[in-house]
Amino acid sequence: MAQLEQQQDPIYRTSPERTYKMMAIMLGICIVGGGIFFGLWDFWTSMPPEIMGQDAEDHGAAPATASGVEIPVSLSFVESSDFRTLAFNALPGEAGNNPTIMANVGDKIVFDVINDGVSFHAFGVTAEEEGFEGIFPGSEIASATSPLKAGEGGTSEFIPTEPGTYYYICTVPGHRMQGMVGEIIVGEAGTSAQAAAPTGVNHDFVLDFVESSDFRTLAFNALPGEEGSNPEIRVKSGDQVTVTATNAGVSFHAFGVVSNPDDFNSVIFDSAINSASNPLKAGESGSVTFLAGAPGTYYYICTVPGHALQGMQGSFIVE
Amino acid sequence: MVSGNMSGNHSTWPEWVYVGVVVALLCYVGAEAWNIERIVEHVPADAEIIKVTGQQWLWTFEHEDGTKEIGELHLEKGKAYKFEITSKDVVHSFNIHDYVVLLDAVPGRINTVWFSPNEAGEFPIQCREYCGLIHYNMRGTLYVENGA
Amino acid sequence: MVLELQRPRPIWQIMFSTHHTDIGLLYLITSLAFMFMGGALALILRLELFAPGTQVIADSMTYNRIFTVHGTTLIFLFILPSASAFGNYLVPIMVRFKDMAYPKLNAIAFWMIPPAGALIWLGFADFTWYAYPTYSTISAPGPAADMWIFGLKILGVSSILGSINFVVTIMKCKHPDLPLSKLPLLAWAYLTSSLITIVAVPTFAAALLMLLTDRLGASGFFNPTLGGDPIAYQHLFWFTFHPEVYILVIPAIGFMYEIFPRFSRKPIFSHSSGVAAFTLLAIVGFASWAHHMYATGMSFTEKTVFMVGTLAAVPASAMHTFNFLATMWGGRIKFATPIMWAVGGIALFFSAGAGGVVNSAMPLDFITHDSYWVVGHFHLFVMGTILFGTVGFVYYFFPYVTGRMYNEMWGKIHFILSFVGTVMVFFTQHILGLFGMPRRIYDYPPIPEWVQMNIIITVGAMIIGISMAIFLVNLIYSSAKGKPANMDDPFGLGGKYYFPYKAKNPHH
Asked: According to the 3-state scheme, what is the secondary structure of A64-120?
């Protein structure tokens, strides 16, 4: 090990100039970086993950019309005694096997499903021609990892947004292949439900987002129980509607008229004010003007996930 | 005492004793924890099933008889309840801290935990896994009522 | 700012140098800068949490982004680079070699850090430093999230390259007359932490890539609607990051193995015990990852396996504690700033470990998981042990780097304020967690106990902030105008216990 040597070379110590130069470099970097960051503040969190954009494409645009028609469908999982063949309602060859459901775009199909077999099953609607993926949210009952046992059942719904053929299946892997699949054939929206030509009539509505102090209850204009809460809106098809919404709470909100109050993505008539990924902050306002489309019962909601369910919804009826 | 090599020439029995004590303590902790968790995880057969669904940013509940509740859960004192917990979108965590009920709500999966409330009153329900913008306010209330 | 090994030369020459002392100093400056920046973010968070309601942060999205960047910065841009800093400077000297095994690769590994840091700080993602799916894949907004993923990818590669360099230098380039068993414990610390890095970090690199493709919709690894499993990510993440916490703490323990014997003027109690403890920790550290996941719905058997793996790693850490205390026992201790930091670090290390044993016990974890108990626990490790050890070593190293002494009185004041503040903040957070306050929340309901404890914690955090401001001023002022140090024995330890390492003149 090298022993202590007499210092032959001079020792160069850090000097003030070196220190100032280094601090100047560090500060310069911070200022430039800070300028870029704060200057583009909204940009950095402006885009939802690309996969979410793809999902919206898969499900198609929100229906321009809600037909108001409800189609109740009762289904049961049945199995052959050797478990080789599976089906809905009746085995192949018998009457009622895998019934085909006819519907139009905008109809709400309500499923009531029960497991009449001895094995495990689960339910869902998909547009895929094979396999058990691509299940539409809201249409699933139980799941492959936690299925319906013998005798158990559940309900779900499905509103098709585009014409075509869909499939209701058992979502346990392999069961569709063994026969648990049926068709839902969706035709165009009926000719009776078309948007009228613009009437030239204008309506102005003020719909403010209000919250209870414990954030448990949300609503428009007033809390439930108070006067004016979630007012019902009626307009005629073709009327021009202007909605002004102010965020009178402290949380985040956004607005849209939708065909399905549980689906905050199904905004129709181009009636959105801001969105869940770019909401109105406390105190902010926005407004939108749009034409009321085809007659039907729709809903105006706050499009931030969960808020409609907590009370921020009201009826928007087009006559 | 100062020697040429890196460590002194001395006995190391104090260290062995110390390590022995540490290992013994840890064995005790491990065994006791194993036993308690084993007992705690045994679900009573008569537990009523409550389906819990977490989503951004609220909790919804469904009782066995189909009654649905949003943000609130009404249960009876003294009865056993089994929660079947899932999520609709991202990972949340269902937590009733006063009764040490804590289990993740994972999309695509149903997790199960049971408890039996032994005191009437109001208890907070909160989310214990970061789930985004309003995670901090994803709360609910458990109401435990005296049984009929 | 370099202890000049030749006549003073321009800064650009230092920046493009491949000599290990220069690269070590670049790492040190970068890591200290990020330490102050990440720490400042914590102060903003604590101001907001002072009371229920909005204080200084307007909305929860900003709060979420701040705590994400706070954690990411302090782990990846402060602790890891500061370990690399001292490692690069000292490992070649400790193995009696002229430089690291791959000098140009060394420079490349350093220069990956500023762009990665820029990506992370410009984006300011919001999905916590874990980035768990499915939030990170379907809900976290971009481009911040994608920038974070790329930034961490680059940092992971930098870590692996640096670790390869350390392992080859120590194993293959050490002087032929120097056996491994006589290598200083600090070199052993770098050897073991580098080996852990090489085994553990590639798993996270894979997980990051899977996150990215999931976000783009090109894959469904963690997406249940496409047949994937979000919990799979947690396994991959923690398989890397449980050993990672050992990667973080082992160099700091190595620093203490330098400080304690010198300032106690007494040799290490047992060199071989230190080697055994490092090796044991490195191996057993891989057996405990899913103790972070007890609440995900694992079976009883799975939880038991990981509880046993966790408890098995505790004796190794206990051995280090014993070694330090036994080294000080009977020594003629000089209470200068570096050893005060090291002693404080050991006290907090012990408390952190004790709290950790509570977490590892399966039923108790359901009280503490994802609450402020966990925040208090891990901060006692990263702040209490790692930061205290690192700062102590920075003080120790200061005269050798700058040729000047720091101000001793302000160094001691820095320690006292930091220690008081750390105890106030992180011990209180353990209790706050027992009262049920969750992590990562922007605001909380006005429960009286929560409010009282949050006030204490915020005050403690401000005390730490003041102490760090003192540190910053001390560092800058002393390097410019500090009293010239006695280069043979800056701390006046006397006799054989001066700092024995000197860099060889670089052959540029």
From this structure: CCCCCCEEEEEEEEEECCCCCCEEECCCCCCCCCCCCEEEECCCEEEEEEEECCCCC
List subunits contacting chain B, requiring 3 or more Cβ pairs under 8 Å: A, C
Nearest-by-CA chain A residue for B137: A215
Could B3 and C132 be called an inter-chain contact, meaning their C-beta atoms sit closer than 8 Å? no
CATH architecture assigned to A202-318: Sandwich (2.60)
HSE of C419, CA atoms in CB hemisphere, 13 A:
19
Distances (CA, A) of B137 to A298, B9, B87, C52, C347: 29, 61, 17, 12, 37
Per-residue pLDDT at A246 exceeds 80: yes
DSSP states of chain B: ---SSSB-S---HHHHHHHHHHHHHHHHHHHHHHHHHHHHT---TTPEEEEEEEETTEEEEE-TTS-EEESEEEEETT--EEEEEEESSS-EEEEEGGGTEEEEE-BT--EEEEE---S-EEEEEEE-S--STTGGG-EEEEEEE---
* B129 burial via Cβ count (<10 Å: 0-12, 13-18, 19+): buried
Q: What are phi and psi of A148, to 5 degrees?
A: -80, 125
C270 vs B15, B136, B137: nearest CB: B15
Looking up tokens 């439900």, which residue turns up?
A193
> Cα dist. B73→B63, B80, B119, B137 in Å?
9, 14, 15, 17
A59: helix, strand or coil: helix
Provide the residue ranges of all domains of chain B, joining segments of one domain with +. Answer: 11-42, 48-145
Phi, psi of A220 (to 5 degrees): -100, 135
Say if residues A197 and A238 touch (Cβ distance below 8 Å): yes
- Distance from B125 to chain C by nearest Cα, in Å? 10
All domains of chain C, ordered by start, with CATH? 20-497 (1.20.210.10)
**Min Cα–Cα distance to chain B from C281, Å:** 14
C484: left (phi over 0), alpha (psi -120 to 50) or beta: beta
C169-179 pLDDT, tens digit each: 999 999 998 89
**A contacts of C3 (beta carbons < 8 Å):** 11-14
Which residues, at least 6 apart from A15, have a Cβ–Cβ distance to it below 8 Å?
C8, C480
Question: Among all chains, which residue has been given the structure tokens 């139009």?
Answer: A104
Residue B88: list chain A partners with CB under 8 A: 137
Residue linked to tokens 């972070």 = C292
Tokens found for residue C249: 């703490």
Query: CB-based contact (8 Å) between A51 and chain B?
Result: no
C315/B40 Cβ within 8 A: no
Residue pLDDT tens, chain B, 148 long: 233 334 455 677 888 999 999 999 999 999 999 999 999 999 999 999 999 999 887 899 999 998 888 888 999 999 999 999 999 889 999 999 999 999 999 999 999 999 999 999 999 999 999 999 889 989 999 999 997 5
Taking the C-alpha atoms of C131, B129, A223 and B50 in order, what is their torsion angle to the nearest 10 degrees? 130
Fold of B48-145: Immunoglobulin-like (2.60.40)
Dihedral pair phi/psi, residue A137, rounded to 5°: -60, 140
Give domain A70-187's CATH number out of 3.30.1780.10, 2.60.40.420, 3.90.1640.10, 1.10.1040.10.
2.60.40.420
**Residue ranges of the domains in chain A?**
70-187, 202-318
Residue partners of B120: CB distance under 8 A and separation at least 6: B77, B144, B145, B146
Q: Report how far residue C65's alpha carbon sits from residue C127's, in angstroms, rounded to the nearest whole number.
A: 7
Which is nearest to B125 in space by CA: B90, B74, B86, B89? B74
